[in-house]
User: Which sequence fits this backbone?
């Protein structure tokens, strides 16, 4: 049922989504150059790797040694707009159509984080990752990693079609007011270093 809901909602939204995808893609190309899409391998269901796509929101600026500059430096004003409105996430809908993701579920994080999770935190991979999730509508990047993972596991244990519908509506509200976009003093969130015992 969840899969049918995801695909049906995306297909019904295509008349609105396609023009937005085209316009945002062109703006990224003009303002940030090529490539338009940012691709990265992320862990999905059962931590199985898949390739996540987003619209690029940062430059490739590097220091004299060729090392990428910090996110806060490379994130442009236009990139901040994309992130605050979640427009950068739209290409991720392709992963939903492919079956690697769902519209709602724990956000897919970095492969590097897998060995850092506690057994309880790792349960976030018992369902498909989502474009949005329970943690995103309960603080997004303004809450701690531990709180975020608690919300993710709560979702795993309580997921339902009605909860997904509620989260989608709450997500639209969050995007409209641009709430919880980043942690204090960070471009998004500080890197996860593991839970302190």
Assistant:
């Amino acid at each position: 049922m969840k899969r049918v809901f995801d695909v049906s909602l995306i297909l019904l939204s295509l008349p609105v989504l396609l023009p937005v995808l085209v316009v945002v893609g062109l703006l990224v190309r003009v303002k940030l150059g090529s490539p338009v899409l940012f691709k990265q391998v992320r862990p999905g269901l059962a931590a199985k790797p898949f390739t996540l796509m987003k619209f690029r929101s940062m430059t490739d600026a590097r220091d004299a040694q060729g090392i990428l500059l910090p996110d806060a430096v490379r994130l442009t004003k236009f990139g901040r707009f994309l992130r605050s409105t979640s427009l950068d996430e739209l290409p991720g809908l392709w992963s939903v159509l492919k079956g690697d993701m769902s519209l709602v579920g724990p956000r897919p994080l970095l492969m590097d984080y897998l060995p850092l999770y506690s057994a309880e935190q790792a349960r976030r991979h018992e369902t498909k990752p989502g474009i949005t999730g329970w943690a995103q509508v309960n603080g997004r990047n303004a809450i701690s990693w531990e709180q975020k993972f608690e919300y993710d596991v709560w979702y795993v244990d309580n997921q339902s079609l009605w909860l997904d519908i509620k989260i989608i509506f709450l997500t639209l509200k969050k995007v409209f007011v641009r709430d919880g976009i980043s942690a204090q003093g960070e471009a998004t969130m500080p890197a996860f270093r593991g839970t302190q015992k």
